[in-house]
C-alpha cells in the first residue's frame, strides 16, 4: 500500500481529515526546507506538497510567485528538490511527499529519468498543474509503474464529462480547487464547495482534498467535514518567506491553529 493510500485509510478509520501543507522547495534555502518539513510533520501535518520552482507559475498568487522567484534565485533545480526529499527520508520514511509544479522542469530532466530518481528518493506523488490528462500518458505510465501517484486538479468550472475523464486518469487523491482564481485568493463559498465535492464524489472513490484560498482555522472549520483533506499553501509560504528569526515560531502557531480546527 502506498504512503498516500495508507495515510488516508488511517485517517478515515479515525474519522479525521488530512492536513496537507504546501511549501516551496529551497525557501529560505535548501537545508531549511528539510527542517521545516520535519517541523510541519511534528505539528500534525499529514501530507507534504513540495513546490518546485518555475519561472511562470501561472496559477499561483503573488506570495507563492515570489517564493518561486526566491528559489530560482537560490538556483534550486529539480536535482536540489530530489536532494531535499532524500535528506528528509533519512528521518521520516512514512509521511507522503508530493511534488507540485509545472511541466517544463520535469520534462527537462527527461520523464523516465526523473520518475526513476523520484522513486529512488521516496517521492509519492506528482501534481503537474499545467499538464492536462490528454497530454500526460508518458508521465502517467512512467510514474505509476514506479508506484508514484498522479494527482489531478478539478476546478469549479470543470464540466461533469471532463470530471469523469480526469478521475479515471488520476491516482492518489483528487485536488479540488475551491474557487475561481489563483492560490491565496480572497475567499470561497462553503455551500458551493460542499455541493461541488458531493458531485465529484459520484465520479471517484479516490480521496478528495480541497485547496486554494484556505488560510486559517475559521476557513478550515467551514469545510472540514466536506472532503477527505484540506490543503493550505499561501498562508504557510507567507510565514516561511518572512523574517527568519520568526519562521519556526509563527509556523508552529499557524499549524496549531489549523490542526485544532480539524
Task: Give the helices and strands, then pairings.
Elements: H1 3-13, E1 18-24, H2 30-42, E2 47-51, H3 62-73, H4 78-89, E3 97-101, H5 103-109, H6 111-121, E4 125-128, H7 137-144, E5 149-150, E6 152-154, H8 160-168, E7 174-177, H9 190-201, E8 208-211, H10 217-223, E9 229-232, H11 234-240, H12 247-261
Parallel strand pairs: 1-2, 1-9, 2-3, 3-4, 4-5, 6-7, 7-8, 8-9
Overview of this protein structure:
There is one protein chain. By secondary structure, this protein is α/β, with parallel strands linked by helices. The chain has a single domain, classed as TIM Barrel. The chain contains twelve helices and nine strands. Strand 1, helix 2 and strand 2 form a beta-alpha-beta unit. It is globular and about 45 Å long. The model has no long low-confidence stretch (mean pLDDT 92).
Summary of the model, kept short:
The protein has 262 residues and is an alpha/beta fold.
Strand order of the largest sheet: 5-4-3-2-1-9-8-7-6
The total of beta strands comes to 9
The CATH topology is TIM Barrel
Q: Tell me the strand percentage band.
A: 5-15%
Main sheet overview = 9 strands, parallel
Our count of helices gives 12
Distance between the termini: 25 Å
Question: Helix amount, in percent?
Answer: 40-55%
Q: Which tags fit this structure?
A:
single chain; 262 residues; alpha/beta; TIM Barrel; 9-stranded parallel sheet; 12 helices; 15% strand
Amino acid at each position: 500500500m502506498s504512503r498516500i493510500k495508507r495515510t488516508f485509510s488511517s485517517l478515515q478509520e479515525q474519522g479525521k481529515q488530512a492536513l496537507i501543507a504546501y511549501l516551496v522547495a529551497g525557501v529560505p534555502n535548501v537545508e531549511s526546507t528539510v527542517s521545516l518539513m520535519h517541523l510541519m510533520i511534528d505539528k500534525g501535518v499529514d501530507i507534504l506538497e513540495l513546490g518546485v520552482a518555475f519561472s511562470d507559475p501561472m496559477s499561483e498568487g503573488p506570495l507563492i510567485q515570489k517564493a518561486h522567484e526566491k528559489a530560482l534565485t537560490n538556483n534550486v533545480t529539480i536535482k536540489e528538490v530530489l536532494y531535499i526529499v532524500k535528506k528528509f527520508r533519512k528521518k521520516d520514511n512514512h509521511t507522503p511527499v508530493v511534488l507540485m509544479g509545472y511541466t517544463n522542469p520535469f520534462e527537462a530532466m527527461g520523464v523516465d529519468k526523473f520518475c526513476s530518481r523520484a522513486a529512488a528518493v521516496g517521492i509519492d506523488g506528482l501534481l503537474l498543474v499545467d499538464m492536462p490528462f490528454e497530454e500526460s500518458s508518458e508521465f502517467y505510465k512512467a510514474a505509476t509503474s514506479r508506484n508514484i501517484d498522479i494527482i489531478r486538479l478539478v476546478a469549479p468550472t470543470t464540466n461533469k464529462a471532463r470530471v469523469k475523464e480526469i478521475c479515471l486518469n488520476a491516482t492518489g487523491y483528487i485536488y479540488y480547487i475551491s474557487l475561481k482564481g489563483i492560490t491565496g485568493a480572497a475567499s470561497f463559498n462553503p455551500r458551493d464547495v460542499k455541493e461541488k465535492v458531493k458531485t465529484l464524489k459520484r465520479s471517484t472513490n479516490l480521496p478528495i482534498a480541497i485547496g486554494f484560498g484556505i488560510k486559517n482555522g475559521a476557513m478550515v472549520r467551514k469545510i472540514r467535514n466536506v472532503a477527505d483533506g484540506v490543503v493550505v499553501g499561501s498562508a504557510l509560504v507567507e510565514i516561511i518567506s518572512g523574517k527568519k528569526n520568526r519562521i519556526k515560531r509563527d509556523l508552529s502557531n499557524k499549524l496549531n491553529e489549523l490542526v485544532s480546527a480539524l
